[in-house]
Amino acid sequence: MLEIKNLQVKVAGKEILKGIDLSIGPGEVHAVMGPNGSGKTTLAQVLAGRLTYEVTGGSARFQGKDLLAMKPEDRAREGVFMAFQYPVEIPGVSNAYFLKAALNAIRKYRGLEEIDAMDFMGLVQDKAKLLGLDETFMKRGLNEGFSGGEKKKNEVFQMAVLEPKFCILDETDSGLDIDALRLVANGVNTMRGPNRSMLVVTHYQRLLDYVIPDFVHVLVDGRIVKSGDADLARNLEKHGYGWIVEEAPKPQPARA
Amino acid sequence: MRPGDIVAVALDAKQTYVADFASAEADLPSPSWLRGIRRSAIERFEAVGFPTQRHEEWRFTNLAPLLRVPFKPAITGGPDGVVAEKLEPFAFGILKTSRLVFVNGRYAPRLSYLRSLPEGVRIASLAEVLRQEPGTLEKYLARFARFQDDPFVALNTAFFVDGAFVDVPKNAVVDEPIHLVFVSTARDVPTIAYPRNLIRLGAGSQATVIETYAGWAPEVTFTNAVTEVVSAPASVLEHYKIQRESEAAFHVATMSIDQDRNSSVTCHSMSFGGALVRNYVHTLFRGEGGSVGLNGLFMPSGTQQSDHYTRIDHAAPACTSLELYRGILGGKSRGVFNGNIYVRKDAQKTVARQVNKNLLLSKEAFVDSTPGLEILADDVKCSHASTIGQLDENAVFYLRSRGIDEENARHILTYAFASDVVNQVKVAPIRIKLDQLILSRLPKGADVGETL
Prior knowledge:
The structure holds two protein chains of two kinds.
Chain A: E1 2-11, E2 14-24, E3 29-33, H1 40-48, E4 53-62, E5 65-66, H2 72-78, E6 80-83, E7 90-94, H3 95-109, H4 117-130, E8 141-142, H5 148-162, E9 166-170, H6 178-191, E10 197-202, E11 215-220, E12 223-228, H7 230-239, H8 242-247
Parallel strand pairs in A: 3-10, 3-11, 6-9, 9-10
Antiparallel strand pairs in A: 1-2, 1-4, 4-5, 7-8, 11-12
Helix pairs in contact in A: 2-3, 5-6
Chain B: H1 3-24, H2 32-48, H3 64-67, E1 72-73, H4 84-87, E2 98-103, E3 106-107, E4 122-125, H5 126-132, H6 151-159, E5 164-168, E6 178-184, E7 191-193, E8 196-201, E9 206-215, E10 221-231, E11 236-244, E12 250-259, E13 264-271, E14 276-285, E15 291-298, E16 305-314, E17 320-329, E18 334-343, E19 351-360, E20 366-370, E21 373-375, E22 381-389, H7 393-400, H8 406-422, H9 428-440, H10 445-451
Parallel strand pairs in B: 1-7, 2-6, 5-8, 6-9, 7-10, 8-10, 9-11, 10-12, 11-13, 12-14, 13-15, 14-16, 15-17, 16-18, 17-19, 18-20, 18-21, 19-22
Antiparallel strand pairs in B: 2-3, 4-5
Helix pairs in contact in B: 2-6, 7-8, 8-9, 9-10
């Protein structure tokens, strides 16, 4: 579903990703873990299309198409979704209005008819219940005055409504208490299926206790230095990142 | 242009207006008490002339484009080709209102209608009232909008022919809004009109008044309007001023509000049209416990200039003012917000909050924002804030990352920026109309509206 080859990215002139190779098949859940500053969020953002990131080399193909050449909105329409680490507050745009606009933009792109108001309300009510969001939430401004937990729930709620094929969760567990974490994890697990893949970016093991990944990759200094299964994440929780950083192959000198 | 040129232009224009008054005076509706006031006003105008950018209050407003046009007062008393269908776009959907229409500052009875009103409520042509009961208005008219302080008020006071008189007696509650429509037309020569309105609210009464200013390009018109509001104790007024003249129109409007104790006034000022627009809203709290809300949106684009001056005079204790103005500026447009809150020495327990936020949609748009608080009392809660910025690129990305294209994302965020002000509007059909007007000012705004 997603093929990343030797992806290199600069942010503000600084090299952050130094050659990422990652292949994610249909239905697979991959976790990317790593210490602060290792490039996890950069990887998530560059896949979603953040413009401030400069791709200097490599490729990322999504269902055979050149993902990096697409505008952010087209990536979303093709089925890529990123749950933001820091969702933006937009007063004056209700959650309902925003989500309907997004859903219809995606449907239009796929040649589907726009959803009518009744069907839309039916759709969102079910999904909101799943995440424990009450009814007034749809009328409130987009993330306006939301607690950290509510914002994260809203991200997963949007994901549930938009039904993407490829979900990127960027530090979705940060700032969640245990009840919210369970709800969010449950929401994510409900969406797992043979045709939907996920990339879970996280610093901690916490979320992975609930969303059990098929593969775990450790990112250190812009490179994936170790890959394994869910046990690797548990090891990291127990022993920290230190042992991996030491075990990791030293960066090769730059080629002349 | 050299500074000397504008002085010459202003001087020429002044002499023309003074000469016009001499020939118009005899035909103006003037009971004897008013004749004296008109004379004093034109003399005051002759003494001070038009302001230039050397005047602090006019520092950001270049009047030269206005002063160069040889405007003439509209001669015809008739509706000048304005038919009811032309006014339909200025209605508010299903909202039922009484409507008074004025074409070039003169009452147009055939375009106007009154719905059933509570006993004692009057909505009438000011000129008719002056003719039929010359004494009725003496206590109020020209007592609140001070021509001594403002040359445009002086001109209006000298020249006005007509306008609306809205009189709501004690304890009367007018449920349906009263819609005053001021239409500007110019057939052969640029035309000037001086609408003059008086809104009088008796103790404990309530009313909603909408002033719509309408006109069509390419007719070059100048509206110099004055509205005086007298709010008796515990009265409630919702006032809307919706500026929808064409982008060839000039518009200067003054609103002077006099609030007795525990009265409540909300002024919504929504400015869309006009080549050069200047609005001045002034409220005076003369009794304690009053409240005022000034709620403004200005949205110039192209080469429009849209200026908004406000002054809230807390002359009595325990009054509350909440001022919220937002500017959305596109193209090469210019805008001014200048808010002045004055808390006098005895006005303890004053609560005053003023916020002006501006959104620049293009690199060539420009806004001057000058919030102002002058506090002489010591037990008050006052604050002011002003921002000027562009759309938040993080927010644009957030919307795009959900499948919304960039242009729509920017429209949605622009619309959202205006919503703070629009949401203050309590009457749903007016709110819906404002939403439409805002969207219609955005290229492809209709697409955003569709998904609403």
